[in-house]
C-alpha cells in the first residue's frame, strides 16, 4: 500500500466533516464552536500522524524484508559456491581414506607374510650359501691339476700346445723329469688383437698327474724370475673366480709383509701363515686379522 492511499482518504474526510459543522451548529456560540473545531482538528491531525507512522512503519518493514531476502539470496549463492568445492574435497578425502585403509591392510598382510617367511628365508639363504661353498670347493678340486702360465708370448706354442708344453716346461724350469704328461693346454679368454703382443693371454695347462703339478710349482718358486724371449713368465695354481677374488684382497697386505721382511706362506684358499722369529706361526684368514697384524709392524 502506498502513502497516497493513506493520505487521500484523510483529506477527503476532513472536508466532509468541516461542511456539516458550519451549517448545523450556527446557533452555538462562537467561542464554544472554536474550541470544538480545535479539538476536531487535533483529532484529525493525530489520526493523520498515526496513519503516516503506520505507513512509514509498513514501508520500513517491506524494505527490511526485501533487504533481508536479498542478503539471504546472496549468502545462499556464496555458501553454495563454497560448499561445492568443500563437498568435492570431502569426497576425495573419503576416497583417500578408503585407499589408505586398503593400503594399510595390504601392508599389514605383507608384514604378516614376511614375518612368517623370514625364518624360511634365513634357512634358504644358509642352504644356498652352503651349496655355493660346496660348488666352489668342487670347482677348485676340478682345477687341482691345472696350472696357469702368465706372460708367455702369443703363438709360441704352435698348433699343438699340449705337445709343446710337455717338452717346454721341464726345459724352462730345469726339471730332472725330461717329459711330463699333459691332457690339454689352451689360451684363456678371447683374442684382443695387436694388444696381444704386449698383454698375451694366460695359458691354462691341465696335467695328467697332480704330483707333476706340484713339482712344476715348486720348481718355479725356487727358480724365482723366469725370462723367456725377454719376457717374464710366471707359473700359478689355477683357482676359481671366488678364490682369486679373496686372494687379490690381500695382495697389498702381502706386499707390505715382504717390504717389512716378514716370512710368510700364502696357503689355500687365502690364508697368510706368518713365521714368527720365536719359531711359532700365526695364521691370518681374513682382512681384519691381516690389517691388525700389519698395524703391529709399524709400532
TrEMBL record:
Q: Where is this region: Disordered?
A: 1-53
The reply to whether Coiled coil figures as a keyword in the UniProt entry is: yes
Q: Which domain of life is it from?
A: Eukaryota
Annotated Gene3D superfamilies? L1 transposable element, RRM domain (3.30.70.1820)
Pfam annotation, one family: Transposase_22
| Coiled-coil intervals | 86-148
Q: Does the keyword Coiled coil apply?
A: yes
Residue limits of the L1 transposable element RRM domain? 176-232
Q: Where is the composition biased (Acidic residues)?
A: 35-53
What are the record keywords, sorted? Coiled coil
What is the protein's name according to its record?
Answer: L1 transposable element RRM domain-containing protein
Amino acid at each position: 500500500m502506498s502513502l497516497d492511499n493513506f493520505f487521500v482518504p484523510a483529506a477527503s474526510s476532513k472536508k466532509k466533516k468541516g461542511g456539516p459543522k458550519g451549517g448545523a451548529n450556527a446557533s452555538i456560540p462562537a467561542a464554544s464552536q472554536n474550541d470544538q473545531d480545535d479539538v476536531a482538528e487535533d483529532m484529525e491531525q493525530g489520526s493523520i500522524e498515526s496513519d503516516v507512522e503506520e505507513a512509514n512503519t509498513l514501508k520500513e518493514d517491506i524494505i527490511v524484508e526485501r533487504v533481508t531476502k536479498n542478503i539471504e539470496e546472496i549468502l545462499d549463492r556464496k555458501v553454495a559456491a563454497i560448499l561445492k568445492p568443500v563437498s568435492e574435497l570431502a569426497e576425495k578425502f573419503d576416497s583417500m581414506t578408503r585407499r589408505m585403509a586398503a593400503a594399510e591392510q595390504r601392508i599389514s598382510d605383507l608384514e604378516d607374510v614376511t614375518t612368517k617367511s623370514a625364518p624360511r628365508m634365513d634357512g634358504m639363504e644358509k642352504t644356498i650359501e652352503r651349496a655355493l661353498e660346496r660348488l666352489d670347493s668342487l670347482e677348485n678340486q676340478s682345477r687341482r691339476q691345472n696350472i696357469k702360465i702368465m706372460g708367455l708370448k702369443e703363438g709360441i706354442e704352435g698348433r699343438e700346445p699340449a705337445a709343446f708344453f710337455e717338452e717346454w716346461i721341464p726345459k724352462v724350469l730345469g726339471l730332472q723329469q725330461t717329459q711330463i704328461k699333459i691332457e690339454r693346454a689352451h689360451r684363456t679368454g678371447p683374442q684382443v688383437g695387436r694388444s696381444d703382443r704386449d698383454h698375451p693371454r694366460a695359458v691354462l695347462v691341465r696335467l695328467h698327474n697332480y704330483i707333476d703339478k706340484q713339482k712344476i710349482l715348486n720348481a718355479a718358486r725356487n727358480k724365482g724370475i723366469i725370462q723367456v724371449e725377454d719376457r717374464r713368465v710366471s707359473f700359478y695354481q689355477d683357482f676359481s673366480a671366488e678364490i682369486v677374488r679373496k686372494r687379490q684382497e690381500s695382495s697389498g697386505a702381502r706386499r707390505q709383509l715382504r717390504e717389512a721382511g716378514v716370512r710368510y706362506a700364502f696357503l689355500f684358499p687365502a690364508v697368510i701363515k706368518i713365521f714368527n722369529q720365536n719359531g711359532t706361526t700365526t695364521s691370518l684368514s681374513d682382512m681384519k686379522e691381516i690389517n691388525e697384524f700389519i698395524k703391529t709392524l709399524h709400532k
